[in-house]
Specification:
By secondary structure, the chain is mainly α. Helix content is about 60%, strand content about 0%. It has 8 helices and no strands. Helix 4 runs antiparallel to helix 5. The N and C termini lie far apart (about 70 Å).
Length: about 190
């Protein structure tokens, strides 16, 4: 049955190459956007988008063709591809902005921790890191969670300075859950 069915898959080598590389995600830069490197990051991203021939979708100079044409189908797919990438970046930016603004303030430690975890989970959803080896991924994840522990501790109210110092001055490694449990065991819920 499979032998009798016709196939529309092209085996002409140049066509295969064109289709395989056209929509393959390419890591344009290893620069991660931070509060301090927007100009550098933006320049690299802009060059990457321009290099893929899609800059006209970003700056709005690509005009929408007539809706009933083949050109419209192509335009629609490419425009939505760019919109999806922009939408993802805008969402990550918004999450980072809210995360950096978050402080314990009047929140209980439990509510503050829950708010941070929610933001971190949301950020992790939008992560598209590609790893060449498991060791790189493990190293990155360890650093990421260490930074999250520092972030959590730094944004606690000053009344937690003693426990913050105890955690930071020990040689022991802690997970974020360990840090939260230590705060909880001290009965520090104000």
């Amino acid at each position: 049955m499979a032998a009798s069915s016709s196939s529309t898959v092209s085996t002409y080598q140049t066509e295969i190459g064109a289709y395989r590389t056209e929509n393959v995600p390419v890591q344009v830069t290893t620069i991660h956007l931070t509060k301090k490197n927007y100009l550098k990051w933006s320049a690299v991203i802009t060059m990457g988008i321009a290099g893929r021939g899609l800059i006209a979708y970003v700056n709005g100079s690509k005009v929408e063709p007539v809706a009933n044409s083949m050109a419209w189908d192509t335009w629609f797919l490419e425009d939505n591809q760019m919109y999806g990438q922009k939408k993802r970046k805008v969402r990550v930016y918004q999450l980072m902005k809210h995360l950096y603004a978050l402080r314990q303030g009047d929140l209980s430690v439990a509510n503050f921790y829950a708010a941070l975890k929610f933001k971190w989970e949301d950020l992790d959803y939008y992560s598209d890191d590609i790893w060449s080896c498991p060791q790189d991924q493990m190293h990155y994840m360890t650093k990421k969670w260490d930074n999250r522990i520092f972030f959590f501790l730094a944004r606690l109210n000053d009344e937690f300075e003693n426990i913050r110092s105890q955690i930071l001055n020990t040689e022991e490694s802690f997970s974020i859950e360990d840090v939260y449990s230590r705060l909880k065991s001290k009965g520090s819920w104000s």
